[in-house]
Structures are given as structure tokens and as C-alpha cells.
Design goal:
Order of helices and strands: HEHHEEHEEH
CATH superfamily: TonB
Structural class: alpha+beta
Distance between the termini: 81 Å
Number of domains: 1
Helix content: 40-55%
């Protein structure tokens, strides 16, 4: 009877270990936050982080397609998007936390998810010397430019 109880207890423990591995924790703040790729040649962590933020914004705005409806309605403002950078450097679970409407939130989310198509993946966050999944939240400004308005008017 004791052997049977011991075997059942071991199987029960093994089952919970598997469940824990499948539902990995997602951190908000870690010792080293994830970084957009392309800055690893720099020397200090501060330089890498500043470069990473700059490259993220450049990529974002270079790939953003301002929604036609938003141009038509002259919609501007700040969209806030949260996403997870996995321990493998991929983006998942992008969510719009704040939206100004007219398709701006979805346009921001689309650019965030397109980062999975980059040749270089994100540098994952780390905690205690191991790579971990981390939530990032980014505010994105939607601002109409004269050039964008003129282009829209010409395409009508």
C-alpha cells in the first residue's frame, strides 16, 4: 500500500511539473529587459538600450500604414500596445490597451507582430541569468503630416 501511495504521489508531482513548464511566467520587469535587434556591437548596456529604442521606433514608423479611415477623419493621438517578447525573441499576444479609433490600434498591432518576420529576433529579457518571457508596453503616436494628407487627397 505504501508503494502504491508513493508511486501515485510521484506521478502527481510529475504532472504538476509538466503543467508548470507549459504555463511559463511572463515578467513585467526583469534584470535585463528585451531589446530590439541591431545594437549588440555597442559596449555598454545603456548604449544598447538607447540604440534599441531608437531602432524600434524607426522600424515601427517605417512600416506603419496610417489607416485610410484615420486620414479621412483626421484621427490623431496615442495608441498603447502591450506585447510579449518570448525567451526565444519572438513577439506574441499583442494587445491594444488604448486606441484612438479608425483602425489606428490595429495598424500598430500589425507592425508589432510583423517583427516576427525580421531576420534577427529580439534579444530576450533575462532574470537570474536565464532568458524569460517579458511583457512590454509601448505608446505609439499617430500624427498626420502635411505630406500624408496631401498624398491622401491626390489618391481620391
Amino acid at each position: 500500500m505504501k508503494k502504491l501511495s508513493l508511486i501515485a504521489l510521484m506521478l502527481f508531482g510529475f504532472y504538476f511539473q509538466i503543467i508548470a513548464q507549459e504555463t511559463e511566467e511572463i515578467f513585467q520587469i526583469v534584470e535585463q529587459m528585451p531589446r530590439f535587434p541591431g545594437c549588440e556591437e555597442l559596449q555598454t548596456l545603456r548604449e544598447k538600450n538607447e540604440c534599441s529604442n531608437q531602432k524600434f521606433m524607426e522600424y515601427f514608423y517605417d512600416n506603419l500604414e496610417y489607416p485610410e479611415e484615420a486620414i479621412k477623419n483626421k484621427t490623431e493621438g496615442r495608441v498603447v500596445v502591450r506585447f510579449t517578447v518570448t525567451k526565444d525573441g519572438y513577439i506574441k499576444d499583442a494587445k491594444i490597451l488604448r486606441d484612438v479609433g479608425d483602425g489606428c490600434g490595429e495598424a500598430a498591432k500589425k507592425v508589432i507582430l510583423s517583427m516576427n518576420n525580421l531576420e534577427q529576433k529580439w534579444i530576450p529579457g533575462s532574470q537570474g541569468g536565464r532568458k524569460v518571457n517579458v511583457h512590454l508596453t509601448r505608446p505609439i503616436k499617430f500624427r498626420l503630416t502635411d505630406e500624408l494628407l496631401k498624398e491622401h487627397k491626390e489618391n481620391k
